[in-house]
Amino acid sequence: MTWKFWMEKKHKSCGTSSLVPMTPKKPQQWLQVVGHAGSFHVGDYGTLLKRFCKREQQCYLRLMTDTLRPFVPAYHGVVQRDKQDYNMMDNLLTHFNTPAIMDCKMGSRTYLEEELHTARERPQPRNDMYEKMVAVDPEAPTAQERAQQAVLKTRYMQWRETLSSTTTLGFRVEGFRKANEDCHTNFKRTKSREQVMEALGGFVESRTHIVWGYLRQLKQLRQVLEASDFFRTHEVVGSSLLFVHDWTGRTGVWMIDFGKTVALPPPLTLDHRTPWVEGNREDGYLWGLDNLIGILENILPLS
Ligand SMILES: Nc1ncnc2c1ncn2[C@@H]1O[C@H](COP(=O)(O)OP(=O)(O)OP(=O)(O)O)[C@@H](O)[C@H]1O
Ligand SMILES: [Mg+2]
């Protein structure tokens, strides 16, 4: 590091030391695990620009005044680059040293109820989705779907969720990247508890203190989620937990990706653990977090 000044950060993010280096203007390193490749730019002073999404902006504005604030990247408003709008937020990797990064998508479904409604309004049989389905599992289509060589989008969305641990555990590993390695993203069919445990184990590499760090932060997050006004009043779908650690032993967990998080019509609220039936809007987020914590605890050697 070339900069020598340290300062107390007022709204420190969870999981990092209270003393963090003052962020220099020069762009910081940033590595992406999953998601759309063209959506991001690294900004100045440790910021990251993500292609503008109104829904995500609304969430970040609300989150900046919620108790969840320490568990999300700080939001800095909208900026324009080459006529494209971006949401500007903290780059969560800034204060790590060649970090390992993992993205876990939370919840028992990754489509919104409104996406189901839209897909039903125009129920077109889709050949492209049929092809994607048979490429993964030739046995998956029904006789009728086989005859039509097509599936409905709603059917495809629901089938796709059953491949991974999304429906069985309430979260899935989207991908991870260890220091100086390529991304591992081959987890689309990682479904059983044992398979998920193996994937998580591959990320933390039997480093017990790293697992302890993550567990402590996940339990803190769970407590804050259970009391958060934002969380109670939103359907949180397709959002991820971003795990970051480095060789110094520092760990951090943050909630990211609110492009599919929507406010509920008052007075509706969610507990995020009740199983989803269409209409109740439940997303299984906390159920998934309970399972994730349980699996990480099982990774630890018995003491
Ligand atoms: N604030 C951040 N700091 C550091 N890395 C980030 C941050 N936000 C996102 N990333 C990285 O970018 C990846 C994709 O982020 P995100 O899920 O927000 O994008 P997306 O394009 O909406 O993805 P998708 O729609 O496929 O889920 C994450 O897995 C993570 O590696
Ligand atoms: Mg994402």
UniProtKB/TrEMBL annotation:
Q: Which domain of life is it from?
A: Eukaryota
Q: Cross-referenced Pfam families, in alphabetical order?
A: IPK (PF03770)
| Gene Ontology cellular component terms for the protein in this record | cytoplasm; nucleus
Q: Which reaction does it catalyse?
A: 1D-myo-inositol 1,4,5-trisphosphate + ATP = 1D-myo-inositol 1,3,4,5-tetrakisphosphate + ADP + H(+)
Q: Which residues cross the membrane?
A: none
Q: Does the keyword Kinase apply?
A: yes
Gene3D superfamilies from the UniProt entry: Inositol polyphosphate kinase
Task: Identify a single GO molecular function assigned to this protein.
Answer: inositol-1,4,5-trisphosphate 3-kinase activity
Query: What EC designation does it have?
Result: 2.7.-.-
Could you list this entry's UniProt keywords, alphabetically sorted.
ATP-binding, Kinase, Nucleotide-binding, Transferase
Choose any GO biological process term that the UniProt entry carries and state it: inositol phosphate biosynthetic process
- Family to which this protein belongs: Belongs to the inositol phosphokinase (IPK) family.
PANTHER family linked: INOSITOL POLYPHOSPHATE KINASE, INOSITOL-TRISPHOSPHATE 3-KINASE C
Annotated protein name in UniProt: Kinase
